[in-house]
Structure to design on (108 residues):
């Protein structure tokens, strides 16, 4: 039953377009909160809320560097999430569809 509950919670998180795009982008590299703010044109608190939910579920991990927090995928033990991300476009294609450059880094 615990496995079903865990799957249900993960799938709920993946049902949000912004969170699924965040995870798709994290397939390629780690990202900073400020990059997501610029990319999605939403507020920093909104981005942080999405990332907090992903982190609390264990789908992403964070690393603080100076004043910036960088996020990366943490799905080694979640084959169902890996399978779903295999069906998402490559990050460069997603960025292209969002009309954003693939190499924009705002907080280095």
């Amino acid at each position: 039953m615990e496995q079903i509950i865990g799957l249900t919670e993960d799938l709920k998180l993946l049902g949000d377009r912004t969170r699924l795009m965040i995870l798709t982008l994290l397939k390629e590299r780690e990202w900073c909160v400020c990059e997501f703010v610029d990319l999605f044109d939403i507020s920093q608190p909104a981005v942080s809320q999405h990332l907090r939910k992903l982190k609390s579920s264990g789908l992403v991990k964070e690393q603080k560097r100076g004043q910036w927090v960088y996020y990366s995928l943490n799905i080694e033990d979640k084959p169902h999430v890996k399978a779903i991300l295999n069906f998402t476009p490559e990050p460069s294609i997603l960025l292209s569809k969002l009309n954003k450059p693939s190499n924009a880094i705002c907080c280095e």
